Amino acid sequence: MSRSRKALLLAAWLATVATLGWVVDRRLVVGMDLRLFMPSPRTPQERLILETVGEGPASRMLLLAISGADPEAVADTSRALADALRKTREFRMVANGETSFEAVPDSLLAYRYVLSPLLDNETIDADFLRGQLEERVRDLASPAAGLLEPWLPRDPTLELMTLVETWLPARQPQLLNDVWFDASGREALLIAETHAPGFDPQGQRVAADSLQRAFEAVRTDSSLRLEASGPGAFSVLMQERTQGEAQWFGGLATVGMVVLLLVAYRSVPVLLLGLLPLVSAGVAGLATVGVIFGTVHGITLAFGFTLIGVAQDYPMHLFSHQHRGLDPRANARALWPTLSTGVASTCVAYLAFLFSGVRGLAQLSVFTVAGLAVAGLTTRFLLPPLVPERGRDAAESAALGSLWRAIASLPRPRWLGIAAALMCIGVVWLSPRPLWENELGGLTPVPRPLIERDAALRHELGAPDIRHLLVIEGRDAQSVLASASALDPQLESFVTRGSLGGFNHPARYLPTTAVQERRRAALPAPDELRAALETALPATPFKPGVFEPFLADVDRARHLPALGPANVAGTPLEALVGGLLLERDGHWIGLVTLTGVQDPEGLAELARSTRNMALLDLKQASEDLVAHQRERILWCLAASAVLLVIVVFVALRDWSRVRRVLAPMALTTLVVLGMLHAAGVSFSLFHLIALVLAAGLGLDYALFFERAADDPSEQRRTLHAVIVCSLSTLMVFALLAFSTLPVLRAIGITVAAGVVSNFVLALLLTRPPEPSDDAR
Amino acid sequence: MTSGLFVRLFLRLAVACLASATTTLHSAEPGLDALLARLARPAPDTTSFVEVRYSSLLETPIVVSGRLEHRQDGSLVRRVDSPYREVTELRGESVSVEREGSKPRHFSLNRAPELRGMLASFSAILQGDREMLDRYFVVALQGTDARWEITLVPRDAKLKRRLARITVNGADDRPRCFILEEPDEDASLMVIGVERPDDLPQPLDQKALTAWCAADTMP
């Protein structure tokens, strides 16, 4: 090929990649919702679990702690921060223990007699009013006078205060300086509910920034510290750390890779050409995912590039086999049967994830399959014309020759392999520990100390249990609210028995229309109320006529329509009710949050005996979901393993060759499984992906070693290629093994161990037993 | 015991004199520091009181009596014994009011600025703390050592909206009346060292009572 045609080819290739890359960059939306990597729900209940995991009130809740100064300054900061956060758009509810009448808008004020339980047990008559007014006289003589006096003409029964107190959490931390404090009295505690779901790291990121800004604005002392905990805070933290470490490791790996390739091929053009298939693979993979899914998840992006790193091996095989006198195109043609078998079988393995039922994994599968296919095809058809013909011949290396001979002379007892396989199966089989990690949380792992701190804060705040939840379903909001309030006596008895710390449901804030109407009907008529007041008043020092605003308010309340979920928007009730009463596709769901659950069995019994209600054990349910999901993925993997054997058989057409090619990979998978399990690792989805990646690499090594057969020059070139490939892969994943993030570490350790094992086993197991061995 | 108290008072006086000598230029009333030093009562200290509260909502004022307790830890307790029982505890920033037959009420001084002002004047006078007085109020002193009147006008705008003025009347080294006037007609008048409402001149008219506090005659 002439120089100009080469240049043209290179230019066209680069232009295509650049154009496609530009389009992808412009059009592709990167999503961050971690639930994309969670199992997809099959039943309405499972859907609710996932929604609750990501969107429920517990998941949106940030637990805040302010400390670092004397309690007065800390309390002042708590108040100022709460005020500031209430003004931001990112938070829909902020509570710090303060009860403020000012928070109740005028529109809701008139509803106070309908929302408060007062009229359930009392009638507003002369006797009742006299008792109330006597109390108010005493209030006026108490130090609270200044606080209450402005409200008295309008609200002599202080119903508003009762109401605001009802809206506080059922179980509260201690109040110091009017705000919540922990038991030691050093940290002010707050609860803030974000608008963004807990597993939306982007939304949570915005909320976290807004929180930090608000804190910086109100802090008066540089020693004051703010701590945020909860699912949202964790997802921000994990995203930051994943990105940070991925960049750091990515940078180190790139440097290492460049050095390795320069040492191996001593040519800058070769180094640069070697990157082209990988870059093409990445762009093609992204474009395919974009066309099929519209968006790509951030994790797909991160993992995807890790997985298609295998594509870097393809040009290396080409380069290592290149030597003087060999047309690179002929070289590529000769390698193609082996290379294409490797590419096809790896693609088949990743196809399994397409049918996993997890959207994120399906994306990952599409990305990897498309990427690897493109990398294989470009290495075969586009790269060879550009490769310089002259190069160092790996076959001339004496060191490689003696290394090969040393390996060839190693004893290769077949029983050792079988024994190793049996031992690994035995370790896994006989171990009392469960093989799999079943927690949904295992997918977004958070460091232990943070989880413990979260549990401590949650305990202090009496924040609802994340694990247990009663779910009420109904055709409309009213039936759900009615079922919720009907639960009160039973749940109260749980609380009295000490088997439940507390509970909370939407009807506590928003009574049913029926209850509201009953209370409204119990309100006295204007004349009646006036007469009662006039009877009560003379016995008190109050001036006649000061309670006219009260008379007007009660009269107004008698004509108000009932308050429903639709018309609490913009009031403090919206946040309180919104998280607990949800509309889903025309039917309504009410959540009863529970605190301090001691007797889940009793609650489950209660749920069973009540219509349209279920006790959700989120932990159990999510574990079931994960287990079910994994089962499905394992079946898919089994199917693709069968496909893979077929692919290899079609390529090699000889069972003994197929066996030799597959043996290292199969044995490696067993060895890595046994080793990690013995080391105390519980397997998650990420380990599975890593094992598939390692298996794909092993298959490639074995295919090439097997191909080298008995030609000493080819053996050395293959050894060179596989050493470069496995070293580069080992380097990348060994780095990941040092990550502080469990997910990255899991992948790093699994693949690094897999590469070493695959390399060694492929060398030992793929070559046919030499005839001379038999003769001896 | 007595001599110890005497020595301490003497030392305080000495310090106060020294302080006033050095700050004469800033201090309008050099006598104030000396007075405050004489008024200081070391905690714990208990004294009886009768409080009369006037409100625009009320036709006749409310009268309660009880004891004020200044504890060692700096907290202040207001105990009402008659006509009903009620205990108010002021500790740091938080206030709790417990009355027999009803739920305890908690709130912070932050939401009751007039109470913070009242408390500041009280503590400052109990502890002889001139600095605290100056921080919250513009202070004026009238009268003689035998019959004096301290007038406190809030500096802070937020406090000013809820509290117009505090007047403290006293004789020699004992405060006698704390009068809180709010911007509206509301007011509270606390007489210290008196056991029963009957000990006050009747009827409990605000003007008459204020005049009585400032008068030369002692109950």
Largest interface, Cβ cutoff 8 Å:
A-B, 29 and 39 residues
What is the mean predicted local confidence, pLDDT of chain B? 80
Taking Cα atoms only, what radius of gyration of chain B do you get, to the nearest Å? Answer: 17 Å
Residues in helix, % of chain B: 25-40%
Structural class, from secondary structure content of chain A? alpha+beta
What proportion strand of chain B? 35-45%
What do these coordinates show?
The complex is a heterodimer of chains A (776) and B (219). Chain A is an alpha+beta fold. In chain A, strands 9, 10, 11, 12 and 13 form a 5-stranded antiparallel beta sheet that branches. In chain A, strand 11 (581-584) and strand 12 form a beta hairpin. In chain A, helix 15 (313-321) runs antiparallel to helix 16 and helix 29 (618-652) packs antiparallel against helix 30. Chain B is an alpha+beta fold. Chain B has an 11-stranded antiparallel beta sheet, sandwiched between helices. In chain B, strand 3 (76-82) and strand 4 (86-91) form a beta hairpin. In chain B, helix 1 runs antiparallel to helix 2 (30-39) and helix 3 packs antiparallel against helix 4. Chain B is globular and about 45 Å long. The two termini of chain B are 29 Å apart. The chains are: A alpha+beta (776), B alpha+beta (219). The interface between A and B is medium-sized, with 29 and 39 residues.
Task: Describe the structure concisely for a colleague.
With 776 residues, chain A is α+β, with helices and mostly antiparallel strands.
Looking at this protein, list some descriptive labels.
heterodimer; A: 776 residues; alpha+beta; 34 helices; 63% helix; 8% strand; B: 219 residues; 6 helices; 11 strands; 36% strand; globular; disordered N terminus
Topology, element by element:
The complex is a heterodimer of chains A (776) and B (219).
Chain A lengths: L2 H25 L1 E3 L12 H12 L1 H4 E7 L3 H16 L4 E5 L10 H4 L2 H4 L2 H4 L4 H16 L3 H4 L10 H8 L7 E3 L2 E3 L6 E7 L6 H18 L6 E5 L1 H35 L2 H26 L1 E3 H10 L5 H9 L6 H24 L7 H23 L16 H11 L5 H17 L17 H14 L6 E7 L2 H10 L1 H10 L4 E3 L1 H4 L3 H10 L3 H11 L11 H10 L14 H7 L2 E4 L2 E9 L4 H9 L4 E5 H35 L2 H24 L6 H24 L3 H25 L5 H24 L5 H5 L1
Parallel strand pairs in A: 1-8
Antiparallel strand pairs in A: 2-6, 2-7, 3-6, 4-5, 9-12, 9-13, 10-12, 11-12
Helix pairs in contact in A: 1-13, 2-29, 4-11, 8-25, 11-12, 12-32, 13-15, 13-17, 14-17, 15-16, 15-32, 16-17, 16-29, 16-31, 19-30, 29-30, 30-31, 30-33, 31-32, 31-33, 32-33
Chain B lengths: L1 H21 L7 H10 L5 E10 L7 E9 L5 E7 L3 E6 L2 E6 L5 E4 L4 H15 L2 H7 E7 L3 E8 L2 H6 L2 E7 L2 E8 L5 E6 L13 H9 L5
Antiparallel strand pairs in B: 1-2, 1-11, 2-3, 3-4, 4-5, 5-6, 7-8, 8-9, 9-10, 10-11
